[in-house]
Amino acid sequence: MILRDYVWIILSDMKRRKFSTVLTLLAITLGILAIFVILMLGQGFENSVGEAFNQFGANKLFVSPKSGYEIQDNDVRFISSKVYVESTYSLYADSAEIEYGNEKKVKSMYGTQLSKDFFDDFNIGLAEGRFPKENEKYSLVVGPDFASDFFSKEAFIGSNLYVRGVKFKIVGILDSLGNPEDDSQVYFNIDTLRDLFGRGDSVDQVFVVVKEGYDVRLAADNLQLALDNKIGDEAVDIQTSDQILDQFSEVLFIIQVVLGVIAFISLIVGAFGIINTMYVIVTEKTKDIGIMKAIGATNGNILFMFMFQAGVFGLLGAVLGVFFGTGVTLLAQYVVVHVLGYDLLSLQFDPLFYLGLLVFGFVVGLLSGFFPSWGASKLQIVETFRQ
């Protein structure tokens, strides 16, 4: 028998058993689709987060308090004195009611050094206006979404906002960073914001820029040791951009594994569907097997024919799975980016990934059909005509 004959037999069987064929293909399709979507979305999120951290730069350290300790300005000055530190930026965050026109809304807000250097170091550009001067204590820089959407009336350069009765003026509107949380931020002068809330010299976090030529992880270890000696162990935690990205990747991997197990169960159900279908086909073709053997077909021919048919079931399920999976991932990207407004899903459609899933589906079909095919190949001619 030539390959064309095998294909004709397979297509004839599928046409004759439309309902069972559809159910078998559906189970395999759902399993491959789930695996495709999980891997594509997981890799897409990881790519986007990696791009975001690359935008901020790999030479950053993030110093955060632990165990109830409050970082103070003198701690920041201590950090700045280290030879490997290029610059430091203190961050204080709080929330309060912001008044604009006749509207009042509660909003989280950040206080930091509103210098051009700060935004340049974190690769945040300015869309409109300017950065505040050092002596401007009541000037604000806001994200583009805050300016356009936070209040019913759009805020512009020169618009006045009121926080706890104190008037502030918007002097700059930032470029979009691609996610609504960052694009809706309001940045205050840190000293002014701390005075409003009576927080003295407290700092919630310190961003540290490591000088060029210094190893960032070594700088983090040295700074951690220096701060532990100064203020005590377990007072602060220092992380690099790479460490934060690694933590995100670990969490994402765990989620992918859990979802992958669910997808694998679906694939196993599909494999059992192929096994069941192939046993039915073998049973119905028992006499045909005898005729083929009587005219010269070998056990190897019979084994190949049925295993190839099972492999085609897996391959067709994989084709449908990656086809619909592509549609699902593109729809997810559209919703995340254009509906939710988060630029956090960078999809990359690799032809080798598609090919790998198609081969995987074919192999699943082959393995699922092995035992029914093996049983068919071992049937004796006399036995086939008795049934």
Short précis:
The chain has about 375 residues and is an alpha+beta fold.
What's the pLDDT, averaged over the residues? 82
Largest sheet: 6 strands, mixed, barrel
Instruction: Please tell me the total number of domains.
Output: 2
Which term fits the overall shape?
Answer: elongated
**How far apart are the first and last residues' alpha carbons, in Å?**
24 Å
Give me the Rg, rounded: 32 Å
Low-confidence stretches: none
Quaternary status: single chain
Query: Helical stretch count?
Result: 14
Count of DSSP strands: 12
Indicate the proportion of strand residues.
15-25%
Can you walk through the features of this model?
The chain is an alpha+beta fold. It has two domains: 193 residues, no CATH class; 165 residues, no CATH class. 59% of the residues lie in helices and 19% in strands. The chain contains 14 helices and twelve strands. The protein has a six-stranded mixed barrel with strand order 3-4-9-6-8-7. Strands 2-10 form a two-stranded antiparallel ribbon. A hairpin with a 2-residue loop joins strand 7 and strand 8. The radius of gyration is 32 Å and the shape is elongated. The mean pLDDT is 82.
